[in-house]
Amino acid sequence: GQQLNQSPQSMFIQEGEDVSMNCTSSSIFNTWLWYKQDPGEGPVLLIALYKAGELTSNGRLTAQFGITRKDSFLNISASIPSDVGIYFCAGQLSLTNAGKSTFGDGTTLTVKP
Amino acid sequence: GAVVSQHPSRVICKSGTSVKIECRSLDFQATTMFWYRQFPKKSLMLMATSNEGSKATYEQGVEKDKFLINHASLTLSTLTVTSAHPEDSSFYICSARSAGGFTDTQYFGPGTRLTVL
Q1: Which of A40-54, A95-109, B41-55 has the highest mean pLDDT?
Q2: Burial annotation A87-108 (CB, 10 A radius, 16+ → b, else e)
Q3: Is the distance from CB of A91 to CB of A8 less than 8 angstroms?
Q4: A35/B108 Cβ within 8 A
Q5: Alpha carbons B88 and B86: distance in angstroms, whole number
Q6: Disulfide: which of A16, B29, B33, B69 matches B56 by Cβ 3.0-4.6 Å?
Q7: Residue A3 pLDDT
Q8: Which residues contact A20 (CB under 8 A, 6 or more apart)?
Q9: Rounded to an integer, what distance in angstroms lies between the CA atom of residue B113 and that of residue B117?
């Protein structure tokens, strides 16, 4: 089946630094989603991307849907301690696939004050 | 954004008992809900797709008689872990699909921590 390679696996950064993480796939997705998960909680949707080349921002977060439709990245600018958590990318093949998502393995972000 | 609730948030049960977990979409109708299982520091593993008014579709390797799914209405799906064993202990998360036009997004519940003694 489809697999997503998410990198890096973990990041340790200083407060105020910018962060970048990405996901790549060997196959095409029609939708890319980025989620954040806090410990003991369900993932929360951060950004949804529906069109190749699309660049979308949500506050300090920016994500792009790669032109090839096989990759996406998420940037976090000026990180703060509450950015700590696990970030997951997810790809969806098509609306006809019943909305099933394939998830990356996550990027664990640690922000040092 | 759309809100999905799960109940209970935590449950501890004895081995051999059954546990029911509810997933509700609070402010939208969800014809499709998904059930995931997550092990510590791991990604989400899709267990099954729950469709309102029809049988659930299980992923390969997931026992349908072990994990019973019922999607009785457009806002409620339940997962019942039957005859639970310690290896069933995990974090179970549901999501509800909100689809319309070009958008198709999953919104997750807060998860249920199951501990089987």
Answers
A1: A40-54
A2: bbbbbbbeeeebbbbbbbbbbb
A3: no
A4: yes
A5: 5
A6: B69
A7: 78
A8: A73, A74, A75, A76
A9: 13
The verdict on A107 touching B (C-beta cutoff 8 Å) is no
Report the first-to-last Cα separation within chain B, whole angstroms: 37
For residue B61, the chain A residues in CB contact (below 8 A) are none
Q: Is the pLDDT of residue B87 over 70?
A: yes
Note whether A99 contacts B: Cβ–Cβ < 8 A.
yes
Chain mean pLDDT for chain A: 92
For residue B112, count CB atoms less than 10 angstroms from its CB and return exposed for 0-12, middle for 13-18, buried for 19 or more. buried
Beta partners for residue A94, in sequence order: none
The string of DSSP letters for A30-83 reads SEEEEEEE-TTS--EEEEEE-STT-EEEETTEEEEE-TTSSEEEEEE-S--GGG
pLDDT over 60 at B72, yes or no: yes
Burial of B7 (0-12, 13-18, 19+ CB in 10 A): middle
Q: What is the mean pLDDT of residues A62-76?
A: 96
